[in-house]
Specification:
The chain is an all-alpha fold and 94 residues long. The protein has one domain: lambda repressor-like DNA-binding domains (434 Repressor (Amino-terminal Domain), Orthogonal Bundle). Helix 2 packs across helix 4. The chain is globular, with a radius of gyration of 15 Å.
Length: 94
């Protein structure tokens, strides 16, 4: 007998929160400047390495709309960028 899979669904509030984290992280990455490079922004691998989290975690936040990052991951990212965790969670104003 084949296993049945249930598709996980998220509430609209959760979808909005995930979208906010994704948008805010992209913005922080694009604004960050490394002292050794003249260009703006850092990539996924550099963000992961410098913040002390896995590359897969950063990729999942940026590319998987259903991914729920742990509080530890959010805290590490916020600490690296020098912002409060709430900065990653807040919705962007239009």
């Amino acid at each position: 007998m084949p296993l049945k899979y249930r598709k996980r669904t998220m509430s609209t509030a959760n979808q909005d929160l995930h979208h906010s984290v994704r948008v805010n992280l992209r913005q922080l990455m694009s604004e960050y400047q490394l002292p050794t490079k003249s260009g703006k922004g850092i990539g996924i691998c550099t963000t992961a390495k410098l913040s002390g989290i896995g590359v897969g975690s950063v990729q999942s936040i940026l590319k998987d709309s259903g991914h729920s990052p742990s509080l530890r991951v959010l805290f590490e990212l916020a600490q690296f960028f020098g912002v409060p965790v709430t900065r990653l969670l807040q919705a962007q104003e239009s």
